[in-house]
Amino acid sequence: MRRKYLLSQQLRLDHGHGLLVVGRREQVAVAFHGHLDRGVASEGHNLLDREALLDPERHTHEDAEVIAATVAGLPDSLGGKRMAIRVAELARAGLTPDWMPGAVPRVVPVDTRRNQHGERAATIVVGTERVLSRGKWRTVEVPACPVTLRPHPQQIEAAHRGYDDWWQALDWVRDGLVSARMLREVEVTGVMPRVRPWGEAV
Q1: CA dihedral sign, ordered 6, 11, 14, 20
Q2: Do 33 and 86 belong together in one domain?
Q3: Number of structural domains the chain divides into
Q4: What's the pLDDT at 89?
Q5: Are residues 91 and 122 in the same domain?
Q6: How far is 108 from 165, CA to CA, in rounded Å?
Q7: Is 15 within 8 Å of 199 (Cβ atoms)?
Q8: What is the rounded end-to-end Cα distance, in angstroms, of the chain?
Q9: What's 88-106 look like in SS3?
Q10: Domain interval for residue 138
Q11: Cα(51)–Cα(92) distance, rounded to whole angstroms?
Q12: Is 113 helix (H, G, I), strand (E, B) or coil?
């Protein structure tokens, strides 16, 4: 009897269940063995546990091999090896990319100063003006408070773009597994994470 799992579950299941080996540190090594060049592996992606990979006592389920090969085969147009690692990392942690839910750009001071009276926005002098004060002309400085947007709209857009790229990669993996029809015990469901959750009605 074939068992149904969400795609994210398929990427996480412990090999102790006799299913997949794409979730833990040594499991990711199985997934990407032979698919990672030294340049990618040396840039902080410490997911390769080759000792575990070479352990002859470890058994890899056939469905796990199929899913691992599919994830590792992500095309360059969808992020290639780096996205494959990203998909595996998030699946291992049971997370989705942070698309900054609820983030709204707000105008805030670039810098602040604190004294005995509390915290205040820092100002800079942007010019001088001549003013008449008590019957005399005086030169006074014109202060201004530099402001910025936090979080910056570009930061939010980048988070949305990262989520969308991940979703597209996950969708590609799902379609590949469905069309290949090579899974024996696991059935890929049609359920996917929300496409663009930031655009959904509250």
Answers
A1: positive
A2: yes
A3: 2
A4: 85
A5: no
A6: 30
A7: no
A8: 40
A9: HHHHHHCCCCCCCCCCCCE
A10: 106-150
A11: 19
A12: strand
DSSP string, 37-58: -HHHHTTT-TT--HHHHT-TT-
CA–CA distance, 170 with 164 (Å, rounded to integer): 10
For residues 37, 43, 47, 48, the Cα torsion angle rounded to the nearest 10 degrees is: 40
Asked whether residue 71 falls in the same domain as residue 167, the answer is: yes
Say if residue 52 is in the same domain as residue 142: no
pLDDT in the model for residue 11? 61
- Residues 48 and 137 both lie in one domain: no
Are residues 77 and 23 part of one domain? yes
Pair (50, 36) in one structural domain: yes
Q: 3-class SS at 112?
A: strand
pLDDT digits (tens, 9 = 90+) for 20-64: 333 333 333 333 333 333 223 333 333 333 333 334 455 567 888
**Rounded-to-integer distance, Cα 191 and Cα 27, Å:** 24
What pTM value is reported for the model? 0.67
Find all residues with CB under 8 Å of 130, minimum gap 6, and list them. Answer: 137, 138, 139
